From TrEMBL:
Taxon lineage: Bacteria, Bacillati, Bacillota, Bacilli, Bacillales
Protein name per its UniProtKB record: Putative damage-inducible protein DinB
Record InterPro entries: DinB-like, DinB/YfiT-like
Source organism, top-level taxon: Bacteria
Family annotation (Pfam families): DinB_2 (PF12867)
Domain DinB-like: 12-143
Amino acid sequence: MMNANDLIVLNFEEVRRRSIKVWKAIPQQMLSWKPDEDALTCAEMIRHLLESEFFYHQILIGRGSTALANVSNPFETIEFTTVDNELGFAQPYRDQFLSYIKSISSSDLENIQIDRSDVGYVRTLGDMLMRIAYHESVHTGQLLDYMRTMRIDRPKIWD
């Protein structure tokens, strides 16, 4: 029988599996494409998602945005080259994040408060975990729209 942590991890794994299908379907020469000058490129969107997960993990550990005050961004040290390289670089951070989720108790999901009042909210740990997965889903949907606009084949993510 699956507990809450198992279901949360499954959700993160499924969101990422579908994201990777989309990311890898973008031709290398199109990773620098963006729909307008104010938008992120495809590569920037992928990088944003991977580094956001790292930063969200730090926020969860520190129970709020103030945890970021002394955290350096490991992604700043590398240039985006390929989706596979980006995923390889991010994997240790991903593993740490999923291990963190597996280590929390079900009461932590309801009782730990994550203070993001700097951006307008305070939420429970469980709520924050769902928001993090949703964040990736929304941006993956944006990339599917980018692909439609570029007139390139979009992968089937509803398998």
